[in-house]
Amino acid sequence: VIPGRPHDRFGVGGYWLKKSSDLDRQPGNLLGDEKGMEAFYNFAITPAMQLSIDVQWIRPAIRLSADATVVGARLNLRF
C-alpha cells in the first residue's frame, strides 16, 4: 500500500449475523440481525515487530443498543 514498505498489510471485512426465525416467538422481540465492518492497517516496524491500528463499526443485534465504533491498536512481537 505504501511504496517501499513490503511487510505492511491492510484489510477490510464485514459480517452479517441473521437471527433465527425461531426467535420471532420470544416475548418483546428485542433481537434483530447484527452487522459490522472492520478495517485495519499493519505497520511493520521491523520484520518481527508490527503495530496494527483498526477501526470497527458494529450494529448490535439487541435493538435497544446503539451502534458502536471501536478503535484499537496492537503491538505484535514475534520471537
Unreliable segments of 5+ consecutive residues: none
Overall body shape? elongated
Q: How many H/I helical runs?
A: 0
Sequence of strands across the biggest β-sheet: 1-2-3-4
Overall pLDDT: 91
Terminal-residue CA separation: 26 Å
- The helix fraction, in percent, is under 10%
What's the total number of strands? Answer: 4
Elements, N to C (H/E): EEEE
- Rg from C-alpha positions? 18 Å
For the biggest sheet, the summary is: 4 strands, antiparallel
How much of the residues is beta strand, in percent?
Answer: over 45%
Summing up helix and strand content along with how strands pair, one would put the structural category as mainly beta
Explain what you see.
The chain has 79 residues and is mainly beta. It is 0% helix and 54% strand. It has strands at residues 9-17, 34-46, 49-59, 68-77. A hairpin with an 8-residue loop joins strand 3 and strand 4.
Question: What are the defining features of this structure?
Answer:
4-stranded antiparallel beta sheet, 79 residues, elongated, single chain, mainly beta, 4 strands
Detail the topology: elements first, then pairings:
Layout: E1 9-17, E2 34-46, E3 49-59, E4 68-77
Antiparallel strand pairs: 1-2, 2-3, 3-4
